[in-house]
Amino acid sequence: MGYTAIIPFAALALTACGGGGVALKNASVEEVAKKVEEAGGTRFSPGKWDTTVQTVSVDIPGMPAEMKKQMTDAMLSKTQTSTSCITEEQAKNPPAQVLAATQGKCKYDNFTMADGKIDGTLVCPAQGMAGEMKMRMAGTFDGESFATENEMNVTAPGGQGMHIKAKTVGKRIGECTDAEKKAANEALKAA
User: Fold this and answer.
1) Residues of the chain with pLDDT under 70
2) Kind and range of the H or E element at 58?
C-alpha cells in the first residue's frame, strides 16, 4: 500500500468526526471506526471534495547521493490533487474507505479526536517487503474542510528506510452529479 494511497483516505475519512471525543491506544482500524461512530459519527458534508497532498520533506538515509537527490527532487516537486464524490452513504460510514485502503493489516498506536482536532499514528506492514510503515497524522477539521500534517516513516530490514513529511488539505467544493454519486456508491460496495 503506497504512501499516497493512505493519506487521502485516512485524512478525509477520519477527520470528519463530530459529537464526542475519541481516545484509543493500540486499536485496529475497525475499533477506531466503531468508537468514532459511538461518539456521534461523522458530521462532514456529503458532496464533491478536493484533497491535496503536498510532500514537504524527504529523507532517505543510505541511498547514493545522486539517486537520493533525483528521488527527493521528484517527490518535492509533486503535489497530488484529487477530486472525489462523497455520498450521503459514505459520509455516514467513511472509515470503510480506510479499511479498504489498509486491507485490514494496520493498527493505530494511538488515536485521539475531539473539538475539531485529530491526532493519530497508524502502523502498517510495508508493502512488498519486511518492515513497517508508521504514519502520524495531526490536524484540524470541520464539516466543510480539513488540514493535516503527516509524517511517514518506512523501515526495512538492515536499518534502511525513508522519512517523509507532507501536508494534506481538503475542502468541500460543491455537489456531486448523479453519475458521480453512482460511481462513488459502486466503489464503496466494491471495497
Assistant:
1) 1-20, 40-44, 92-104, 126-130, 157-159, 191
2) strand 47-59
Burial (CB count within 10 angstroms: exposed 0-12, middle 13-18, buried 19+), residue 65: exposed
Q: Enter the pTM of the model.
A: 0.73
Q: Which residues contact 95 (CB under 8 A, 6 or more apart)?
A: 13, 14, 29, 30, 32, 33, 36
DSSP H or E stretch at residue 42: none
Q: Measured on CA atoms in the order 80, 87, 92, 29, is the torsion positive or negative? A: negative
Packing angle between helix 3-14 and helix 95-102, nearest 10 degrees? Answer: 160
Q: pLDDT exceeding 70 applies to what percent of the chain?
A: 74
CA–CA separation, 144 and 42 (whole Å)? 12
